[in-house]
């Protein structure tokens, strides 16, 4: 109730003043005058004789300190009396409020409304709890909205930075796109070739390969092949990268035999031109027999290493095939 909350507030204020009283009384007890006489006695025992004007100066300093100390004690005593008066006044208010609360409760009890009052009090507590919960939810929602706005600004700044960076690297991007298209065209002569598109997006750079017509798994895999070789070319131009490229036979799943042959030939020629190793693991029965151009001989590139599951030494790095 209002009376109960008022009494609690007075109790809290009394606790604060009681703590203040302890501090004031401690400060008052610590106030002691400076012992100037002890200093004079020390000099006398050392055989030092002061002129009369110096002795008078010591007396004046001692008097000055006593006046300051007295003023300090007077101020602290006044603060103590004021705090005690506030506590006494609050105690009187508490007594009156408590009397009034008991009087109201007696009236409610005699009129049979006490039970109804307690139910209303319980309902009021429940509603107050819900209000506090909704208030916290509102604060959280406002925080989220503020964070979203801040993130929106950050995202806009990052997007602008990405766009500027994309523009600054336009020449390098063009070289990568051109290299990809040349590889794709050499793989699909007189057929649909893929176009590499590099553009700034919401979550960073977007890489997209556009192919006219129907897109199958085999065609998609060959575009990955072209993309990897393009990366090796870019690394060679910048004198970086691991110096080798490895493809597993899964990359050629669903690819026409003649396209596989063309890809292997392009990989061999590209690696010799740029000076990197191109390694392909493939089952012997999956090796293409036709589709190679010119004098290209696949047998010259087959390594003597054979992976087999017929014995324990036929694996690679402990993996059996």
TrEMBL record:
Q: Which residues form the DUF2326 domain?
A: 184-321
Q: Name one Pfam family in it.
A: CTD10
Chain ranges of the ABC-three component systems C-terminal domain: 21-145
Database matches in InterPro entries: ABC-3C_CTD10 (IPR046919), DUF2326 (IPR018760)
Q: What is this protein called?
A: DUF2326 domain-containing protein
Organism of provenance: Micavibrio aeruginosavorus
């Amino acid at each position: 109730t209002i009376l109960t909350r008022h009494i609690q507030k007075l109790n809290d204020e009394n606790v604060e003043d009681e703590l203040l009283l302890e501090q004031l009384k401690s400060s008052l007890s610590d106030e002691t005058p400076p012992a100037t006489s002890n200093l004079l006695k020390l000099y006398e025992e050392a055989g030092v004789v002061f002129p009369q004007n110096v002795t008078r100066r010591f007396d004046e300093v001692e008097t000055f300190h006593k006046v300051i100390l007295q003023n300090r004690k007077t101020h602290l005593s006044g603060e103590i009396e004021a705090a005690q008066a506030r506590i006494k006044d609050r105690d009187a208010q508490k007594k009156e409020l408590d009397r009034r609360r008991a009087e109201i409760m007696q009236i409610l009890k005699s009129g049979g409304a006490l039970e109804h009052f307690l139910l209303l009090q319980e309902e009021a507590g429940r509603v107050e709890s819900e209000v506090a919960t909704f208030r916290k939810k509102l604060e959280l929602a406002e925080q989220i909205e503020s964070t979203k706005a801040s993130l929106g600004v950050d995202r806009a700044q990052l997007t602008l930075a990405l766009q500027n960076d994309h523009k600054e690297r336009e020449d390098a991007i063009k070289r990568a796109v051109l290299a990809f298209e040349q590889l794709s065209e050499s793989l699909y002569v007189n057929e649909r070739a893929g176009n590499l598109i590099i553009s700034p997006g919401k979550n960073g750079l977007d890489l997209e390969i556009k192919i006219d017509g129907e897109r199958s798994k085999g065609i998609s895999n060959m575009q990955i092949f072209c993309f990897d070789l393009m990366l090796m070319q870019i690394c060679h131009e910048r004198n970086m990268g691991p110096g080798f490229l490895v493809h597993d036979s899964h990359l050629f799943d669903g690819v026409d035999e003649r396209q596989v042959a063309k890809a292997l030939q392009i990989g061999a020629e590209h690696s010799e031109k740029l000076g990197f190793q191109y390694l392909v693991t493939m089952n012997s029965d999956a090796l293409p027999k036709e589709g190679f151009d010119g004098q290209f001989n696949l047998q010259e590139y087959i390594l003597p290493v054979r992976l087999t599951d017929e014995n324990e030494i036929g694996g690679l790095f402990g993996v059996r095939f």
